[in-house]
Amino acid sequence: MDGLTQTTARPLYWISYGDNAGSPLLVLHGGPGAHHDYLLPGMLALSDEHRMVFYDQRGGGRSRTDDTRDPITAATHLDDLETLIAELGLEPLSLVGYSFGGLLALLYAVEAFEGHRKPKPARLVLIDPAPVTRHFRNAFEAEFARRQSGDDVQALRAELAESGLRDRDPDAYRRRQFELSVAGYFADPRRARELTPFRVIGRVQQSVWDSLGEYDLTARLRAIACPTLIVHGREDPIPLASSEAIAAAIPGARFAVIEDAGHVPYVEQPEPLFAEIRTFLRETEPA
Q1: In the 8-state DSSP scheme, what is residue 184?
Q2: Where are the chain's structural domains?
Q3: What is the tens place of the pLDDT at every residue in 178-224?
């Protein structure tokens, strides 16, 4: 089942999978400026027990807009999220946020528990959430740049340059270029070949991060009063300390480290990742 929202300021594309007994899961993709497709098929592992709803955040994928008169900000995404939840009737609300989607879930939860948005989440699952402060984001950017210029990725670049693929199969060559552009996110850069390709709209990404400024969300996280699970790949270029800070700030939060995984554990280590998430969801299923 899929469609376009009717009540958001701009139509947003959404799609759902599964029709099972567990409460629905609203999945927030990363970016910002990306789209939900690259979470598939990996994240559908949970659709055997839950209806899973995905949507393309405004500015990316099938929710893309070329109207530059009104820049897309973090507040834009929060307004869209609140309206979409109401339109699709996703209560009790279980948010599963990946990467930037994890930060978006935290921003929404903070505002909801501070009394500024409805409904409040019944539970949160955060998978390798984006850095919770600008300081941690600076550290992530430096580490990712280091990995992209490191020996492993440079060897893959040289391998592609010598392959003749550019002339022999231009489509495959472009696919390999994409893989190299994200290789630094993986514990093993070669595993980037298993990631579904995606596109990030740069102006949207920039406008959202600019809107957050020199942000630091840690103090406000104490307001969150729902079961929360944070999982983080040991080899993620996003500092492990960022997710540790989230877990320390949210009362009663659970925290799990996924070994031998970078930023994309649903590709690199799906079994331990989904085992953690399934256990949490079964133990916190809303009445």
Answers
A1: G
A2: 2-136+199-283, 139-194
A3: 999 999 999 999 999 999 999 999 999 999 999 999 999 999 999 99
Q: What backbone phi and psi angles, to 5 degrees, belong to 251?
A: -55, 125
H-helix or E-strand spanning residue 174: helix 170-182
Q: How many CB atoms lie within 10 A of CB 162?
A: 8
Q: At what angle do helices 240-249 and 134-148 cross, to 10 degrees?
A: 160
Task: Report the alpha-carbon distance of residue 78 to residue 274 in Å, rounded.
Answer: 27
User: Are 175 and 197 within 8 A, CB to CB?
Assistant: yes
DSSP codes, 18-59: ---SEEEEEEE--TTT--GGGGTTGGGGGGGTEEEEEEPPTT
Run of H or E including 88:
helix 74-88
Q: How far apart are CA 247 and CA 32, in angstroms?
A: 23
Separation of CA 11 from chain center? 21
Q: How far apart are CA 273 and CA 162, in angstroms?
A: 36
Q: Which residues pair with 28 in a beta bridge?
A: 97
Residue 30 exposure: Cα atoms within 13 Å on the Cβ side: 16
Query: Can you give the length of the chain in residues?
Result: 287
> Is the pTM above the cut of 0.85?
yes
Task: For 115-163, give the DSSP string.
Answer: TSSSSPEEEEEEESPPPSBHHHHHHHHHHHHHHHTSHHHHHHHHHHHTT
> Does the domain formed by 2-136+199-283 have CATH 3.10.690.10?
no
Q: What is the pLDDT of residues 7-33, one digit of tens each?
A: 999 999 999 998 766 789 999 999 999
Q: Which residues of 34-43 are buried (b: 16+ CB within 10 A; e: fewer)?
A: bbbbbbeebb
**What is the per-residue DSSP string for 180-240?**
HHHGGGSSSGGGGGGSPP----HHHHHHHHHHH-S-B-TGGGGG--S-EEEEEETT-SS-H
